[in-house]
Amino acid sequence: MAILYALVARGSVVLAEFNASSTNASAIARQILEKIPSNSDSHVSYSQDRYIFHVKRTDGLTVLCMADDTAGRRIPFAFLEDIHGRFVKTYGRAVHTALAYAMNDEFSRVLSQQMDYYSNDPNADRINRMRGEMNQVRNVMIENIDRVLERGDRLELLVDKTANMQGNTFRFRKQARRFKNTVWWRNVKLTVALIVLLLIIIYVVLAFVCHGVTLPSCRK
Predict the structure, then answer these.
(1) Fewer Cβ atoms within 10 A, N terminus or C terminus of the chain?
(2) Phi and psi for 108 in degrees, rounded to 5?
(3) Region class of 156: left (phi > 0), else alpha (psi between -120 and 50), else beta
(4) Which stretches of 99-219 are assigned E, i.e. beta strand?
(5) Which H or E run contains 173?
């Protein structure tokens, strides 16, 4: 399983988490929450032995996961993006005032399900590839967690510069899809209008022929 642990937190307050491993991922994750800057959005990764902790912090909400180092970065960060969206959509403003583990009973199941999906379902990677190769987190520096946790100074980590590009790509694809649907409906309406017009023309021609010309079929 590629993704083994995940949590959602506000600052250092853990709101929900799920651990599918037998490691001390939970303890290390809390140390990371204490160390990362809380006043700015960030996408960062830390290495620990053969595991990597990936962190996405947006608008004060932190989503973190631990994955095998073989999982790369595209899938873990796609997982974090997905979890962040689901959490905000489900709980809204409550995330800003909720107590520790307030959402754990319900949302830990979501974490478990999505961890399994992004770890084992081939469609997860295919979907992420369809979203665009630009979404790869190329500029996140993976720093050894031992050095990070021993340091008392502010962490100087390379921020994911593709985050804004990713958002722009998603918006562009959404607009393109909407435009495609609009064009399709316009073509459908035009086709229906042409068919109706053709039927009217046929009706008028048949009516003219039947009334203006003596035909055996019209005498009946």
Answers:
(1) C
(2) -60, -30
(3) beta
(4) 142-144
(5) helix 163-212
